[in-house]
Specification:
CATH topology of the largest domain: Rossmann fold
CATH class of the largest domain: Alpha Beta
Shape: globular
Protein name: Glycosyltransferase
Domain WsaF N-terminal: 144-198
GO molecular function, one term: polysaccharide binding
Number of domains: 3
Strand content: 5-15%
Organism: Streptococcus cuniculi
Strand order of the largest sheet: 3-2-1-4-5-6-7
Number of strands: 13
CATH superfamily of the largest domain: Glycogen Phosphorylase B
Keywords: Transferase
Distance between the termini: 57 Å
């Protein structure tokens, strides 16, 4: 049992593991006929600490931005929930932390203990070093001090950041998705939504989110996505296999897993000669209605190998767009995606991305169109040439410029 939980945490992260624990406990109680005990508020996934919720009174005691600072190098803190290896959100945060550190700023992570799996600062630091190649101090939030700038990095950490005190502390919100819709319309939806009214300055992943945040009166600027060119650039000459891939994240609702599986079943019936590879999580416990290869959690080089061999990749994003499409374009693999302004506002009406309705029949039809092209290898080469300059450098610089513009004089 313990081994399974550790495996789940490594492959699927804290949120999915906690859901499994709650599900298991619920069914164990039902099977034993035990009388249900009273529900502990701290056991409801995912929530900030109750005292932080009660203390964060943005209505009667709003956060007021402090005066700008007369300095060029800043002490910048990031408040993060428990960290797991290979998480997309922490991967993006780590990119900017590494860049800001290289520019001479002092960076520190602070761990916020929401009610997911507990994690010490030492455990988090080990993961940052091992999985994200970061040499940055990680501290307990109780030890917070001497910072000029602090970033909330998720809705539950926003409550902790709101409650931090300091006459000259500038508070930012690093927004990578519209988190209220991670939940049904209920308490967590409303609590997540409220954080956009806290008065923090937002820096968002892509151009879709600032418009969403503006509805709550939140000021925000955004950075564009990039790709690691050196990793994903394909070998030449490009020779595609009869293979397509699927970014399969069954435990992440916004990745449309069920839609993807249904679409791929239709595709497989029309093109049985094509191999289908799943990646993104361990699929060994799932009963998939067609033959496929389960690749699980992969490192960047392993991902690049799949992209280079695949003609297309089905990657669904029902909230903010995934990081994958630009990586796929650099690698010469056609992204097949659901249409919607959450994707097109970030990536544009890109002729190299194949958009479909978020409906199995249309997704399957678009996959068929891609593999039925007569110029598959030539088209992959053209994509690679077009996107070989798509790096993260401009975004790194823009984020530093936003921070300095909002925090310092001159």
């Amino acid at each position: 049992m313990i081994d399974k939980l550790i495996n789940s945490y490594r492959n699927e992260g804290a949120r999915a593991t906690l859901r499994k624990i709650c599900h298991k406990l619920k069914h164990t109680r039902q099977a034993s006929g035990a009388t249900p005990s009273k529900i502990d508020m701290s056991s409801i996934p995912i929530m900030p600490q109750l005292e932080d919720l009660m203390k964060a009174d943005y209505i009667h005691h709003p956060y007021m931005r402090p005066e700008k600072l007369d300095k060029k190098l800043l002490n910048i803190a990031w408040v993060t929930p428990p960290v797991g290896p290979g998480g997309g959100g922490h991967t993006t945060i780590s990119r900017f932390v590494r860049y800001l550190q290289s520019q001479g700023h002092r960076l520190t992570f602070y761990i916020y203990r929401n009610n997911t799996i507990p994690q010490s600062a030492k455990e988090a630091q080990d993961i940052f070093e091992r999985s994200y190649n970061l040499n940055v101090p990680v501290k307990e939030l109780e030890d917070f001090q001497d910072e000029d700038v602090v970033f909330a990095t998720s809705w539950e950490t926003a409550y902790a950041v709101f409650n931090l005190t300091g006459n000259h502390l500038h508070k930012f919100y690093f927004v990578q998705d519209f988190e209220p819709i991670f939940y049904g319309v209920g308490s967590r939806y409303k609590l997540a939504e409220a954080t956009y009214k806290f008065g923090f300055y937002g820096i968002t992943a892509g151009a879709w989110l600032p418009d969403k945040l503006k509805e709550y009166g939140m000021e925000a600027d955004y950075f564009d996505f990039g790709a690691d060119i050196d990793v994903y650039r394909p070998r030449t000459p490009i020779l595609k296999k009869k293979k397509i891939s699927f970014y399969a994240r069954a435990h992440t609702e916004r990745r449309g897993f069920e839609l993807g599986v249904m679409a791929l079943k239709i595709f497989k019936e029309k093109h049985p000669e094509y191999e289908i590879e799943f990646f993104g999580q361990d699929m060994s416990n799932y009963d998939i209605p067609f033959e496929f290869t389960d690749r699980g959690i992969l490192n960047k080089q392993e991902l690049a190998d799949i992209y280079h061999e695949s003609v297309a990749c089905l990657v669904l994003s029902l909230t903010n767009v995934s990081l994958l499409p630009l990586e796929l374009l650099v690698a010469g693999c056609v992204p097949v995606m659901n249409t919607g302004d959450n994707n097109t506002k970030v990536l544009g009406e890109n002729e190299d991305i194949v958009y479909a309705e978020a409906y199995p029949v249309d997704l399957a039809a678009k996959l068929c169109e891609v593999v039925e092209r007569q110029d598959i290898n030539e088209h992959a080469e053209k994509m690679n040439q077009k996107y070989k300059g798509t790096s993260w450098e401009a975004s790194y610089k823009k984020v530093e410029e936003i921070i300095l513009r909002e925090v310092t004089h001159g």
